[in-house]
Specification:
The chain is of the alpha/beta class. The chain has helices spanning about 15-35, 65-70, 85-95, 105-120, 140-145, 160-170, 175-185, 195, 200-215, 235-240, 305-325, 365-375, 405-420, and strands spanning about 5-10, 35-45, 60, 75-80, 100, 125, 150-155, 225, 245-255, 260-275, 285-290, 295-305, 345, 350-360, 380-385, 395-400, 405, 430. The strands form two sheets. Strands 7, 8, 9, 10, 11, 12, 13, 14, 15, 16, 17 and 18 form a twelve-stranded mixed sheet that branches. A six-stranded parallel sheet has the order 3-2-1-4-5-6, sandwiched between helices. The protein binds NADPH dihydro-nicotinamide-adenine-dinucleotide phosphate and L-homoserine.
């Protein structure tokens, strides 16, 4: 029986998870695939770093080139992270015609076209299942299982760290700094956690999903990105009272069909109805809701981060890479096929939704009238207003929910409201999603 030797660059949270998962299930995979799989070498930065699972010293090296360039290594897995050396590693392996597997969404988002080009030129594949939504097989689903569909909407909770933080903020009424430290201990957070909390990790994943689903490499500068730093207990509790839960969402919404398709691509914390299934996706779990024009609504749920769930996605890529080698062909549904070059990203200001606005205002006569007059002048209809009764506070929260309107109109009105002398803090704006 043929044996595939695997070289792994990175043996941290995900890398050691992959090593351990293959130790556990390689016999099962051999039975299913008819090929032996062995992790022959693992490159790390330092041998004595603590790892969630042990990797034997006999396979470890600190020289990644000795892994990638070894002719006995057939498949290379990049699990070091970042977009610098990781890119060099991936390109070096692809140029040798070796299939490459990565969990690195920052790298795919930043350098996708160049990397997929290099794979095609060298007659091999670059696999990236673990880059989006951890253990959920969403890449294979969109790329292969739903290949016969146009993608009308993709909504996802795609960042485990933020979902873990928002869940605990809601359940324990705690602020997020302390909870972030726990997410780091559990191996969910990125090496640079601002990637998680400021929405950029979710943007990388949403960027990948949007490009895959819509057949053009999305210009990521056009993606609206907001993270969860500005979400406070006040917002969580008001959202709850109004019948909503706050979740960080990646959104890919086709706005118009035909020759000049526009796609809304955004990442932001949104209020979603408490009874919607995504409102009940908690902790590190992710869920991606995909509406295809043929299949209708589908939903994918699972752990979005962590060593074992992510390892499962990498194992699936290992199976594909090994099959390429055994079958002597890299032919698959292309990783990113450009078929819709006329599609463009919708300008953020053109998106239409309901909005939640929290202001900190002076509690005195006429303030509400001045605020609502600005909404009226901008033809924005208010659906509800809440001002909780507060004793002896100089400023009070004023929560306003609007009916659906264009984001540009709302932003214009909000800029004027923010300049009112009675408005004492930077307004908080959150969108409301009903998934219609
Ligand atoms: P870790 O920081 O835990 O692991 C990084 C690994 O890379 C470490 O083993 C480190 O070595 C190694 N490394 C760093 N520099 C070098 C170098 N110059 N040469 C060789 N090895 C090097 O990160 P994660 O495992 O959490 O993440 C890895 C990738 O997976 C990232 O792209 C991340 O975005 C992605 N990902 C992570 C998920 C998660 O839940 N953590 C989920 C999905 C994707 P040493 O051990 O000696 O420090
Ligand atoms: N930091 C990422 C998250 C890891 O929390 O979702 C999984 O991609």
């Amino acid at each position: 029986m043929e044996q595939i030797n695997i070289g792994m660059i990175g043996g941290g949270t995900v890398g050691s998870g992959v090593f351990r998962a293959l130790e556990k299930n390689s016999a099962l995979m051999t039975a299913r695939l008819g090929v032996k799989l062995r992790i022959a070498k693992v490159a790390v930065k330092a041998f004595d770093e603590p790892r969630p699972y042990k990797i034997p010293a006999s396979v470890m090296t600190t020289d990644w080139t000795s892994v990638v360039n070894d002719p006995d290594i057939h498949v290379v897995i990049e699990l070091m992270g970042g977009t610098g050396l990781a890119k060099t590693v991936v390109l070096a392996a692809l140029k040798l015609g070796k299939p490459v597997i990565t969990a690195n969404k920052a790298l795919i988002s930043e350098c996708g076209p160049e990397l997929f080009d290099a794979a095609a030129k060298n007659n091999t594949n670059l696999y990236y299942e673990a880059s989006v939504a951890g253990g959920i097989p969403i890449i294979k689903t969109v790329r292969e299982a739903l290949v016969g569909n146009r993608f009308v909407q993709i909504y996802g909770i795609v960042n485990g760290t933020c979902n873990y933080i928002l869940t605990r903020m809601k359940n324990e009424r705690a602020e997020f700094a302390a909870i972030l430290a726990d997410a780091q201990k559990l191996g969910y957070a990125e090496a640079e956690p601002s990637l998680d909390v400021d929405g950029y990790d979710a943007m990388h994943k949403t960027h990948i999903l949007a490009s895959l689903a819509h057949g053009f490499w999305v210009d990521k500068k056009k993606i609206l990105v907001e993270g969860i730093r500005s979400i406070s207990q006040t917002d969580i509790q008001f959202a709850e009272k109004l019948g909503y839960t706050i979740k960080l969402l990646g959104i890919v919404k086709a706005a118009a069909e035909g020759k000049n398709e526009k796609v809304q691509i955004s990442v932001y914390p949104a209020l979603i109805p408490q009874q919607h299934v995504l409102a009940n996706v908690n902790d590190v779990f992710n869920a991606v809701f995909v509406r295809g024009d043929i299949v209708g609504d589908t939903l994918y749920y699972g752990r979005g981060a962590g060593k074992d769930a992510t390892a499962s996605a990498v194992l699936s890529d290992i199976a594909d890479a090994a099959t390429d080698i055994v079958n002597k062909t890299p032919r698959r549904v292309p990783a990113f096929a450009a078929y819709a070059k006329r599609a463009t990203v919708m300008a953020a200001g053109d998106a239409v939704s309901q909005f939640y606005i929290r202001l900190g205002v002076l509690d005195k006569p006429g303030v509400l009238a001045r605020v609502t007059a600005i909404f009226r002048d901008n033809k924005i209809s208010i659906s509800s207003v809440v001002q909780p009764e507060t004793q002896a506070a100089s400023t009070v929260p004023l929560i306003i929910m609007t009916h659906s309107c264009k984001e540009a109109a709302l932003q214009k009105a909000l800029a004027k409201i923010a300049r009112l002398p009675e408005v004492k803090a930077k307004p908080v704006l959150l969108r409301v999603e009903h998934f219609e």
